[in-house]
Q: What sequence folds into this?
């Protein structure tokens, strides 16, 4: 098991195959406590974590998220949501209301939710579990919000599988990252030249079996890709959950 937080970072790899083993309740409590220790804007804790223990519900979420079998197999599955519903309730209780518009709510709620989610995943890895974030929950967040009975002011941000990694499927090597100079800029943004872009493709080539990063980027981010197809669903879900920008 990794010894330090730096070893944890170095050894991190997303796990997509889990043994069907439950987590001891004590471990679930420990990782949820770690999630709650994340910093939070203005102390507001603008997130909620839905622990999905119902197998039929898990099955449906796996299907909605693009048939991701690891959602069914992992010991624990969480949906981390931004939540300004509770904040609104607290303010109303003392005679006022939430004055934050949808853009500010989405930005700070997402920030709080992601910081808690990162702590949750890292704490799970520190105990020795495998983790996999599930952005696929966005595929049908309109439907997912209904399935989870989310009130207005609550919106799913990301799913997280936590479980015992199937030893036959643990990636031999951590997946690559861009060289630091591509993501860290000094005193201002450094624009990229064509040779930088080629160097980025070379650095990330090991991410795929075909040794080419481009098909992955194209599949997700080009017109008609996974992300573009989410736009209309997200617009409907944001409206449904009370996050419609006014202009
Ligand atoms: C916000 C977010 C959403 C993700 N969504 C999915 C997903 O839906 N399914 C999946 O198998 N992996 C998902 N991942 C995992 C990434 O694919 C993975 O982190 C990336 O390929 C880098 O690999 P590594 O985590 O092993 O370093 C997601 C990761 C993040 C941070």
A:
């Amino acid at each position: 098991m990794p010894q330090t937080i730096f070893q944890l970072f170095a050894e991190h790899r997303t796990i997509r195959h889990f043994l069907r083993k439950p987590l001891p309740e004590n471990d679930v409590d420990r990782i949820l406590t770690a999630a709650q220790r994340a910093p939070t804007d203005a102390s507001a804790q603008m997130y909620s974590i839905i622990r999905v223990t119902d197998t039929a519900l898990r099955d449906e979420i796996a299907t909605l998220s693009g048939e991701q079998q690891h959602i069914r197999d992992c010991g624990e599955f969480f949906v981390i949501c931004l939540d300004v519903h509770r904040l609104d309730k607290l303010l109303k209780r003392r005679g006022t209301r939430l004055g934050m518009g949808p853009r500010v709510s989405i930005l700070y709620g997402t920030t709080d939710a992601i910081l808690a989610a990162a702590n949750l995943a890292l704490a799970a890895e520190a105990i020795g579990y495998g983790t996999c974030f599930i952005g696929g929950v966005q595929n049908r967040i309109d439907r997912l919000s209904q399935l989870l009975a989310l009130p207005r002011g609550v919106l799913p941000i990301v799913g997280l599988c936590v479980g015992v990694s199937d030893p036959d499927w643990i990636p031999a090597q951590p997946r690559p990252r861009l060289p630091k100079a591509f993501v860290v800029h000094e005193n201002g943004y450094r624009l990229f030249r064509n040779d930088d872009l080629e160097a980025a493709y070379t650095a990330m080539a090991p991410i795929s079996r075909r040794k080419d990063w481009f098909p992955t980027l194209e599949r997700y981010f080009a017109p008609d890709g996974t992300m573009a197809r989410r736009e209309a669903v997200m617009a409907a879900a944001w409206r449904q959950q009370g996050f419609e920008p006014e202009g």
